[in-house]
Amino acid sequence: xxxxxxxxxxxxxxxxxxxxxxxxxxxxxxxxxxxxxxxxxxxxxxxxxxxxxxxxxxxxxxxxxxxxxxxxxxxxxxxxxxxxxxxxxxxxxxxxxxxxxxxxxxxxxxxxxxxxxxxxxxxxxxxxxxxxxxxxxxxxxxxxxxxxxxxxxxxxxxxxxxxxxxxxxxxxxxxxxxxxxxxxxxxxxxxxxxxxxxxxxxxxxxxxxxxxxxxxxxxxxxxxxxxxxxxxxxxxxxxxxxxxxxxxxxxxxxxxxxxxxxxxxxxxxxxxxxxxxxxxxxxxxxxxxxxxxxxxxxxxxxxxxxxxxxxxxxxxxxxxxxxxxxxxxxxxxxxxxxxxxxxxxxxxxxxxxxxxxxxxxxxxxxxxxxxxxxxxxxx
Length: 379
Description:
Elements: E1 5-12, E2 18-26, E3 32-41, H1 44-58, H2 65-89, E4 98-109, E5 123-127, H3 130-137, E6 141-143, H4 147-151, H5 161-171, E7 177-182, E8 186-191, E9 201-206, H6 210-220, H7 229-233, H8 238-244, H9 273-291, E10 301-305, H10 312-321, E11 325-328, H11 339-352, H12 360-363, E12 373-375
Parallel strand pairs: 1-4, 4-6, 7-10, 10-11
Antiparallel strand pairs: 1-2, 2-3, 4-5, 6-12, 7-8, 8-9
């Protein structure tokens, strides 16, 4: 076993709910020792700044002031979160070897082979200044984790599979396990028996919570369908669901990845609030079911992480849609709200140790690829 390092992982997802931070010690392989965590919600103003940046990026306005403003604010809140975590944990900054900084995704459009022109080249964009963060907190930073994979023709996502495999190995499972992350986008990791790195399969399977959140914001002003209450009151419109499942993405073979905004609300716009929530929840679950055909072998155990596991309607829909036992991260002793932050601590250590973070059957990388950009903190 190589020498463990102390790392802080930072994650701000496409749901724009805030920054999660986790302190851990790991060797980037099998050694996992978990430390304190901290979460800071995005302010209303910061959500507005980021949404303006997303709009500018989608419109091709790369140099827009809105993007620069959002990038600065995103970096600042991440610095504040690191300082708060250190204080709460009673840890001095010199005791931390590295910070893994994901940044805030404002655009994600992977390449579509064959790449015959520059327009076919994929792009992913996570705003946040790694060097500025390193200088601000006085700790070295690894960021820009997805770019190397995209440059080599990969999807740039998902990156969590290698961490999921380490977690499943720690559980000692002797059968294949499906790890389902339900954030703004839903993604699946197939972890083979024994958690072997070579057998990992992963891909984005559907919209996760993204469409439901968008629907509730549009119709009620609420950020989400809390506990799935609206969906549980509503009725699933099966014809609408059937139409949504005809989306070309559902037929694409993995590896494949999504931008949160790749799926639209068009099919449900005429539905009542509760019926729309019920139908969109059923759609997210049906996307998981449709994805089972792409797994090497059937999965008898699903471990659900991400915010979607808190949605009772979603968990009920999954139970009806997929085969096997449905468990939450907490059911197996994982910290479901902190998993992605832990992941970027783990990936930062792998990056320092020159270990791969993406693989042919997780992102369509041509071979196992290293990733991340190192930023030395000013002393």
